[in-house]
């Protein structure tokens, strides 16, 4: 099969196929032939688009964070920073549901095996994705919705809590009402501990309960 050099559709199929193999079968399944088969293309296409299997593995992680960053950047910025934090949580969940295999590889749930353990630089690349959360946390403090604290520390706590829920959600551990009965109450409890008024926080993030319908 002949592929046009630089075909974006082929590149996406290779990335998603590699992520699927890593998440479902582990790093031993990430072979040149298996990736090409998953992507319905030739083995040469891997070299055309990525140069090597190691570079493909690196690109899978980068693609995952790029998609997450794009969704976070689309969250509207409002006059209510708590609403914005809820929207970012909604986008984080939506990304994981839309890209479950990439999500598993991004955060190490699916091992990359011999190809490439995550490095400090790559983890930093992931952290930079969450600048939107840090900024919303800063505004929440400025607006008096949260008690004074370092915005990155606030964002890290919120990220950790939401990430835990999202990981279990993608794994199928919550039903259709998980967002309403688990994620939202957890988020409100954490915000309350950070100084938010519980009722006001719930009012600000109530739209988070619509996430399941967006799946």
UniProtKB/TrEMBL annotation:
Residues 31-50 bind DNA. This is TetR family transcriptional regulator. Keywords: DNA-binding, Transcription, Transcription regulation. The lineage of its organism: Bacteria, Bacillati, Actinomycetota, Actinomycetes, Micromonosporales. Residues 8-68 form the HTH tetR-type domain. It comes from Krasilnikovia cinnamomea. It comes from the Bacteria. One of its GO terms (molecular function) is transcription cis-regulatory region binding. InterPro entries: Homeodomain-like_sf (IPR009057), HTH-type_TetR-like_transc_reg (IPR050109), HTH_TetR (IPR001647), MT1864/Rv1816-like_C (IPR025996), Tet_transcr_reg_TetR-rel_C_sf (IPR036271). PANTHER family: HTH-TYPE TRANSCRIPTIONAL REGULATOR BETI (PTHR30055:SF234), HTH-TYPE TRANSCRIPTIONAL REGULATOR RUTR (PTHR30055).
